[in-house]
Amino acid sequence: MNDMTPTREQREAALEGMGCKRKRVEDIRFTQGKGKYVDDIKLPGMLHGDFVRSPYAHAKVTKIDATEALKLPGVIAVLTAEDLKGVNLAWMPTLAGDVQMVLADGKVLYQNQEVAFVVAEDRYIADDAVQLVEVEYEELPVLVDPFKSLDPDAPVLRPDLDGKMEGAHGPRKHHNHIFNWSVGEEEATDKAFAEADVTVKEMISYHRTHPSPLETCQCLASMDKVTGQLTVYGTFQAPHVVRTVASLLSTIPEHKIHVIAPDVGGGFGNKVGVYPGYVCAIVASIVTGLPVKWVEDRMENLSTTSFARDYHMTTEIAAKKDGTVTALKVHVLGDHGGFDACADPSKWPAGFFNIVTGSYDFPVAHLSVDGVYTNKAPGGVAYRCSFRVTEAAYCIERGMDVLAQKLGMDPADLRLKNFIQPEQFPYNSALGWEYDSGDYPTAMHKAMDAIDYRGLREEQKAKQEAFKRGETREIMGIGVSFFTEIVGAGPSKNCDILGVAMFDSAEIRIHPTGSVISRMGTKSQGQGHETTWAQIIATEIGIPASDITVEEGDTDTAPYGLGTYGSRSTPVAGAAIALAARKIRNKAQMIAAHMLEVSEYDLDWDVDGFQVKGNPERRKSMKEIAWAAYHAPPAGIEPGLEAVSYYDPPNMTYPFGAYFCVMDIDVDTGVAKTRRFYALDDCGTRINPMIIEGQVHGGLTEAFAIAMGQEISYDAMGNVQGASFMDFFLPTAVETPHWETDFTVTPSPHHPIGAKGVGESPNVGGVPAFSNAVNDAFGFLGATHIQMPHDAWRLWKVAKDLGAHG
Amino acid sequence: MIPGEFTYHRPASVAEAIALLVDHGDEARPLAGGHSLIPMMKLRMAAPEHLIDLSGVADLKGVSQEGDVITIGAMTTQAEVIGSALLTDKLPILRETALLIADPQIRYVGTLGGNVANGDPGNDMPALMQCLSASYVLAGPDGTREVSSRDFYEAAYFTALAPEEILTAVKIPVPAPGHGYAYEKLKRKVGDYATAAAAVMLTMSGGTVSSCAIALTNVGDTPLFAEEAASILDGSTLDRETVKKAVAAAEAITMPASDGRGPAEYRTKMAGVMLERALKRAAERAQG
Ligand SMILES: Cc1cc2nc3c(=O)[nH]c(=O)nc-3n(C[C@H](O)[C@H](O)[C@H](O)COP(=O)(O)OP(=O)(O)OC[C@H]3O[C@@H](n4cnc5c(N)ncnc54)[C@H](O)[C@@H]3O)c2cc1C
């Protein structure tokens, strides 16, 4: 070796593989405004669609008159449910096994529901024409409160389900009832409660909110009447699923449908579902033979396409005097709005809410979830979480604090006492999951030391005394959250979407000169797949990440995949990538053996090539092997170097973390200031620490927003409140707290590279940390549970009701 | 979120602008920075058929002092207010308040004239103008007139401005050197209008208040000039009891709407808290 030969370390660094803080390659175009989003795509002759929407939350639609609208120059068509019936598309199936109106069919069930679709030559004309469509309504009694849904005299929201007492998930017990889902051992749980030293019960609500991607939902449909080919560009998190659903709905053969998700400006669950806008744009393109674009505005986005949460969780914990938990019982009332359009794996009506036993060793538990209809927008998406895991984490983390308060125990100590211990993994939870791995005590102790937890408690005590003496008007709260996530949906044995198993895929092709194109069934919406997928490949096959192109989102070129949501990309597609890469490496090993004239078994893999055992000078780099694969393939070996892998995970992965929030609240204004927020995440193997940090920052910011004010609410008439960024709390950099991040590493034992997924942990774990901090601050004044969101006026009201205003 | 159709005009002088307003009557609206008007047009809560853009009228810009009066042209942007050395020196409360409006992008375009002419109780400048005893110069087909900011606001979006008039400038008497001042604003986040805000101007001599003015933002359908609260404080040492009385008097004149910022009860109380805090800060700043 001469001096110019790079060292092993240099070769490794040149790969920018796993573990490297590689800068995001996609940012080069995003930061220059050169991303290509749906609305940047303009096709010749393109038309624009816009919706006439209902001002009422519940009403009969007695007449739709488009005469005046059609007179406006530039207006091409106005579609109503009657038109859609002609193509059997007035209603569409939802992911949750319900059906949903595409356009109002005789009635509307929520404010801003889609009533008619105007198609015009430009967006301005379309919007003008929307004002000219005359719709007559006959108002019906409005049902807003989910707790009144099942009253005997509650209004009938869904006459289409009249007499249908069997739903997609079993029997329905009332005309507004959707399903009941029960898990666990009820009798044993009741027995444990009867025998408990201490029990607590609290109705813990997780209010309705909404994801806020910068780019709203939108699509551009183009039907080529000559070839019969339908092309749909859209903001899709799961483009292949959209293709399959579009084929099933339209009866256009699947090979004649081409779905392209270009750059997607954030998803957070909002872009998983199929919305009326997509169906209408497709139908309008089929009818007119011209491309039709539909772009949602912000108010439409916040008020219609898929809310999140709205779970009302009656939570009971039984425990011994020393704090050992003995049973958990939860009943959830889920408000699903007018249609059950939850985006969950099909067999899971409440998602993975049965992860609600959290990080604790509950011997028994029982969970029962009832889904009900109300006059609100449909949805129930996993807003940066894995299918109702956020609700579950909030439920148990708040519940543990309620128990700690009742026992007079420190909430961190109560958690430490009840953790599932490292030696218990794989751990079978009382509600049916097999946790793959974890080391909770180590993470918790590391976090407590990092923030000087005991010191903070001392400070808090002193501040409480000072407050009682009237020396300060500020109270201090310390929020503890130790969450366990369940991500990576999922194993085909329990996860499918409309019958399609939730595997994922990767295809990798090595070019003769040793650079790479790779395609996956996932779709980045900001997660940085172009960067991290290349890093996995780089480490696995020794080709620098900078020589690897990653492409997603085009169903004609990418292998079939179930898309990106629920932190599933790394656990599922990440594994497929590693396995496809290993197939390539195996073939490369055969080629290298031939080139070096040794047996395959005499070769060792070394960073970026193979070397002869005991004679490392004799080696072939991956680049040399690639050239040989195309230039002089050994006899008996197919030329070329590429592989496809479809990965059906054997289990979910279970990321976890310890979050602490320190907050000061001004009781006179209710304004809460987050002094410190410390987040320790364990997501197993860390592919790109910088991207992890970015994901954690973003997710914590959402958690902060949700806990401290972000809300979609309705007045008594079903008018949606605050569906604009003036009122809907989207914090800016000014309000957002400073984040301290940290980690431990407990690799997943069943994942090829040990990675678990991290994108959603901060939202899941962050919300309880904030809410627990608020509750902790008010606890000494007598509060037991304070409902979110914790915006200033509500906290002021809490302070007032607790007598803090004198 | 797309405005209706309109015709765009860009006059070069005040006279031309007024002529356009006279020609088009109720269908016309002056356009300044557009950061209140355009959002309303996008929501189709306003649908003017003619927009008279004032940004080409050079006479409407600039800050100057003549004797005891500072004149600020209507088209002076909020960012220019913040950047003005004269205003920072003589009227620091104007800068303090402007910095609490929206965000830098909006302040680069939004104007002082638009802010005070808009008539939205959420705007911060109107209450401040009342506190400062400012008056507005209104130019119309029959010449110009001056209206005190304390008489200008009638109800939400209703002001003394006639449809064919333009607000050309704001005139503010220069406050005494050594005065204390504070604008306290409670808001949910950057870019939000006030949950409640209070403007205070004070002069002190020998530890007692020798003059005081108070006005409140966004707790009624107009800005509120809190005359009684101020008179209670006059001559006091700002002792706890007197401040309490003044705060109660200020709270008594509020009539806020309940909205996402909180119920009326909360916003009234916050007007009181903001006033108390503004008084404290103003007193700390006052010399004498
Ligand atoms: C997100 C956001 C947050 C904001 N937050 C705040 C805030 O916290 N506090 C605050 O005070 N403001 C706030 N604003 C409003 C902002 O300050 C506006 O710029 C200001 O209210 C209006 O000024 P403008 O120059 O943009 O006027 P425009 O929007 O152009 O005009 C407003 C109205 O005044 C009329 N008008 C304008 N100029 C004249 C004139 N010279 N003569 C006669 N009539 C005239 C117009 O016809 C129109 O009716 C916010 C705006 C936005 C978009």
TrEMBL record, chain A:
Residues of the Aldehyde oxidase/xanthine dehydrogenase a/b hammerhead domain: 32-141
A GO molecular function held by the record: molybdenum ion binding
Broadest EC class assigned to this enzyme: oxidoreductase
Keyword Oxidoreductase appears in the UniProt entry: yes
Swiss-Prot/TrEMBL catalytic activity: CO + a quinone + H2O = a quinol + CO2
EC number: 1.2.5.3
Cofactor section: Cu(+); Mo-molybdopterin cytosine dinucleotide
Transmembrane segments: none
Cross-referenced Pfam families: Ald_Xan_dh_C (PF01315), MoCoBD_1 (PF02738), MoCoBD_2 (PF20256)
Domain of life: Bacteria
InterPro entries: Ald_Oxase/Xan_DH_a/b, Ald_Oxase/Xan_DH_a/b_sf, Ald_Oxase/xanthine_DH-like, AldOxase/xan_DH_MoCoBD1, AldOxase/xan_DH_MoCoBD2, AldOxase/xan_DH_Mopterin-bd_sf, CO_Mo_DH_lsu
Keywords per UniProt: Copper, Metal-binding, Molybdenum, Oxidoreductase
UniProt keyword Oxidoreductase, yes or no: yes
Role description: Catalyzes the oxidation of carbon monoxide to carbon dioxide.
PANTHER family, per database record: ALDEHYDE OXIDASE 1-RELATED, XANTHINE DEHYDROGENASE
Assembly mode: Dimer of heterotrimers. Each heterotrimer consists of a large, a medium and a small subunit.
Name of protein: Carbon monoxide dehydrogenase large chain
Organism: Roseibium limicola
Organism placement in taxonomy: Bacteria, Pseudomonadati, Pseudomonadota, Alphaproteobacteria, Hyphomicrobiales
From TrEMBL, chain B:
Leader sequence segment: none
Stretches assigned to the FAD-binding PCMH-type domain: 1-177
Keyword terms of this UniProt record: FAD, Flavoprotein, Oxidoreductase
Domain of life per record: Bacteria
Pfam families in UniProt: CO_deh_flav_C (PF03450), FAD_binding_5 (PF00941)
GO molecular-function terms, A-Z: FAD binding; oxidoreductase activity
Name of the protein: Xanthine dehydrogenase family protein subunit M
